[in-house]
Amino acid sequence: MRIDDRILQALRKAVAQAGDAKELAAKCQVSASNISRYLSGKVKSITDDCWEKLQAVLELPPLPATSGTIKNSAALREFIRQKMAENGMNSTEQLRRAIGYDSQTTINRLFNGELNWFPDVLSAVFDVLNCDPADSPLSGSELSMLSPRGLYRDGAMLVRPVPVVEWANAASHLESLESDNVIMQNWDPDTTLTVPVPADSRRDTRAFKVHGISMEPRILDDDIVLVEPAENLNAIPDNKVVVVRFSEQSNIPEKVVCKRLRKQSPSQMLLTSDNPEGRIIPCSPDDIAWIGIVVKKISEM
User: Fold this and answer.
1) How many other CB atoms are found less than 10 A from the CB of residue 13?
2) Residue 162 host element (H or E)
3) Distance (Å, rounded) from C-alpha 97 to C-alpha 67?
4) Residue 96's pLDDT band (cuts 50, 70, 90)
């Protein structure tokens, strides 16, 4: 365990509360000389064995909140350890293998309280331990960040499933992204069509089943495309294939299209078809309510 300012402050507080380093050493069964070296900065890390003993007596301040993560509280770690014991798991290595995660270092840091939880990793932990997230010490907003229960019952954290949105529902789905509500949170992993994406892919990646032949031969009817939303038009290189939802103020009859973006000027662009028979749509930035770059195509088998 690396000794950072957070741990150093907790150590100093624990020594002050105990009276001195010797008293703290007797309380946690870690040698006083080690505690002195930790406080002096002569050593920069604590062994796993010593940290396990010290952690029980330290009052660590919570990790800073990070967008898209779940607070790694001591109560949450204790809840997971209890569930591990109930499932016959006595090491974090066993848990890592069960969820199919590739970094033991990251798992160790999570159990040491050094990192907050990514929702998909915590979802996989709950699934393989067969526990109800509602029984955990998570808040309602934190529970809403988790994947549908049972999604990771077989592990496989190296990829994560993304639900596929049918093209007929694409406009309403993209419109719903503008609200603060969690999107497609309650979809059923047993009945919903999903596609696997790498676990480290952007969390806002969307999957759409395209309808139509305007992008043939590159994208065929019923192909599934993975789309990463763009913050603005300037972030999209010219000639990229994109998915666009038009604004309510636009005079363009289509609600959503998959086209190739060709920039004419800062205020004008063309959305073109790869199929020569497909439509070309002139538009301006004001016509576009949402735009994302197609990063991958998955053909139907």
Assistant:
1) 14
2) strand 159-166
3) 27
4) confident
C-alpha closest to that of 134 among 144, 125, 124, 120? 144
Classified as helix, coil or strand, 233 is helix
| Closest listed residue to residue 120, CA positions, set 68, 169, 80 | 68
Measuring CA to CA, how many Å separate 283 from each of 220, 242, 245, 270?
24, 14, 12, 6
pLDDT of 37 above 90: no
DSSP 8-state assignment for residue 158: T
Give the domains, in start order, of the chain with CATH numbers: 5-55 (no CATH), 74-143 (1.10.260), 158-301 (2.10.109.10)
Query: What is d(CA 289, CA 286) in angstroms, rounded to the nearest whole number?
Result: 8
Q: Using one digit for the tens of pLDDT, what is the confidence trace for 110-134?
A: 998 888 898 888 999 999 999 999 9
- Can you tell me the distance from the alpha carbon of 113 to that of 25, in angstroms, rounded to the nearest whole number? 21
- Number of other CB atoms surrounding residue 202 within 10 Å: 12
Helices (H) and strands (E) in the chain, counts: 10, 9
DSSP letter (8 states) at residue 2 = B
- Supply the mean pLDDT for the chain: 84
The residue whose two tokens read 């789309």 is 227
Question: Residue 242 pairs with which residues in a beta bridge?
Answer: 259, 293
Matching residue, tokens 């331990």: 129
